[in-house]
Amino acid sequence: MSVAIKKIAKKVPPKQKIKAVEATVQVIQADGSENTEHEQIGDVNVTEPYATVSFQQGLTKNLGNYESLKFSVTLSIPCAINGEDIEQTFEQAKSWVDGKINDIMNEVNQSLGEG
């Protein structure tokens, strides 16, 4: 008598998760005081496992009299783990951060009477 054993493999669908897109803006004043703001600017639906692409850019604005204002902007976006998605996500993050840096710089220049 023989017994046949069958293995039944079930295909488990990938887990979907909703992850936050997070931005951080940090400003360091000439007097050394620091202000950091964290903001959730949206959500993305990603399949596990996933990558997180972050882009950060900062500038220092000379205020004269040996004083300066420093600020930086960081954006982190979860995405699929493949070259094309990572590259597209990087370009989106870079574009958003560039725009935010320009907005902050315009605001600083206006407050200094330069804009």
Strand order of the largest sheet: 2-1-4-3
The major sheet is characterized as: 4 strands, antiparallel
The rough form would be described as elongated
Number of domains: 1
Proportion of strand residues: over 45%
Q: How helix-rich are the residues, as a percent range?
A: 25-40%
Q: Give the low-pLDDT segments.
A: none
Gyration radius, in Å: 23 Å
Helix- and strand-based class? alpha+beta
The end-to-end distance, rounded to whole angstroms, is 92 Å
How would you state the average pLDDT, rounded?
88
Oligomer: single chain
Strand elements, count: 4
Output the number of helix runs: 1
Order of helices and strands: EEEEH
What attributes does this structure have?
1 helix, 115 residues, alpha+beta, four-stranded antiparallel sheet
Write up what this structure looks like.
The protein has 115 residues and is an alpha+beta fold. The protein has one domain. The protein has one helix and four strands, in the order E-E-E-E-H. Strand 1 and strand 2 form a beta hairpin. It is elongated. The model has no long low-confidence stretch (mean pLDDT 88).
Question: How is the secondary structure organized here?
Answer:
Blueprint: E1 16-28, E2 34-47, E3 50-64, E4 67-80, H1 83-111
Antiparallel strand pairs: 1-2, 1-4, 3-4
